[in-house]
């Protein structure tokens, strides 16, 4: 993609009410555009990041048997009344239409469970797993943290259906592995943390990323064998870890994922039962598994940035390389930069090419740092013919290599 053709531009301006680091950087770099508190448009750069995160999540969910579906955003009121959540869900958006009232889906048990009654009848229909990646709506009272707390945001939600507790537990452990894979692949360290389970089960497991700007708090063992959300933690910071890993640490964190046992709470509400081998009807047991896709994008920016801008992990960066030409229009170097751009693309490298003529090298470098693509390539007279200067976003040193070596750097 040529920068001169890109829909968005970098900017020095951020809306006055925007205080979070992730929103400020993402707006300035042209990833998102603010519409209102907690409501953003995703621009081409931002859409690419969302797509990459979604793809990682999709691959890991498919690997544990998840089948992708899309459920509606509009949920008829009677379904939410049936679970007592029309009144009971504190951040539910309720809208009135000509055909009655609707909830805008903040989560999808009220849709997925009645749907499952159409297909799950017998023990031979179990287990089953479905998921979607979809926009969710929550009337959050404080939406001041950019992508970390949207009123409209992207979530992956998977629902599992089981014949018995043992089968549920087996799958729950598999889901934990998939979750660890997702966060690791997205470049984040997420701590699996015991948290409250709400009204229907004692505990849930959250995936928490240590970050000063997070709204959650955990007490954890740096050795990795213990972590609890402070909402349930009985232990205090500084207590020695039972396994000899030293004192437990307190940290502020961002919840990027949450997995739950739902037991038969929703199956009972909607009559989701199956006929077992013994001919008896039994309730289907369920689990639900959420990942905040857009929150994850915000969390990556909160954790990986410096005073100059974003530092994307390779796996979720909008482009593999940021190519800069330092040259006058029509010059030999400018023609060569063009050729290198073509060559890199032919080698399967996704390149953002800063081909602007009216901008100083300093401004180009500043924009590259702001946008945060992990590798920057510079073509200039000084670097020399057939060569590029390569610099990684998270390192200070650069080196001059041949175009072929640059291609190899990207592993192609
Ligand atoms: P929180 O406690 O932060 O409000 P939650 O526990 O209510 O979140 P869940 O219902 O567990 O959220 O939703 C699953 C995942 O969706 C969360 O782990 C989080 O990553 C994401 N998420 C929840 N609310 C928001 C939001 N307002 N904006 C962006 N992502 C969100
Ligand atoms: Mg949660």
What layout of secondary structure does this protein have?
Blueprint lengths: L20 H9 L2 E5 L2 E4 L1 H20 L3 E2 L5 E3 H6 L2 H4 L4 E5 L2 E5 L4 H8 L11 E10 L14 E11 L2 H21 L5 E6 L6 E8 L5 E5 L6 E3 L19 E15 L1 H6 L2 E3 L5 E3 L1 E8 H11 L1 E2 L2 E2 L10 E6 L5 H15 L4 E4 L6 H11 L3 E6 L6 E6 L5 E5 H7 L3
Parallel strand pairs: 3-7, 19-20, 19-21
Antiparallel strand pairs: 1-2, 4-6, 5-6, 7-8, 8-16, 9-10, 10-13, 11-12, 11-13, 13-16, 14-15, 17-18, 21-22, 22-23
Helix pairs in contact: 1-8, 2-6, 2-8
The structure holds adenosine-5'-triphosphate and magnesium ion (MG).
What key phrases describe this protein's structure?
binds magnesium ion; 5-stranded mixed β-sheet; elongated; BirA Bifunctional Protein, domain 2; Rossmann fold; 11 helices; 412 residues; alpha+beta; 2 domains
Written overview of the protein:
The chain is of the alpha+beta class. It has 2 domains: 13-306, BirA Bifunctional Protein, domain 2 (2-Layer Sandwich), CATH 3.30.930; 321-410, 3-Layer(aba) Sandwich (Rossmann fold), CATH 3.40.50.800. It has 11 helices and 23 strands. The protein has helices at residues 21-29, 44-63, 77-82, 85-88, 109-116, 165-185, 265-270, 293-303, 332-346, 361-371, 403-409; strands at 32-36, 39-42, 67-68, 74-76, 93-97, 100-104, 128-137, 152-162, 191-196, 203-210, 216-220, 227-229, 249-263, 273-275, 281-283, 285-292, 305-306, 309-310, 321-326, 351-354, 375-380, 387-392, 398-402. Strands 3, 7, 8, 9, 10, 11, 12, 13 and 16 form a 9-stranded mixed sheet that branches. Strands 20-19-21-22-23 form a 5-stranded mixed sheet, with helices on both faces. Strand 19, helix 9 (332-346) and strand 20 form a beta-alpha-beta unit. Helix 1 (21-29) crosses helix 8, helix 2 packs antiparallel against helix 6 (165-185) and helix 2 packs across helix 8 (293-303). The two termini are 19 Å apart. Adenosine-5'-triphosphate binds next to strand 8, strand 13, strand 16 and helix 8.
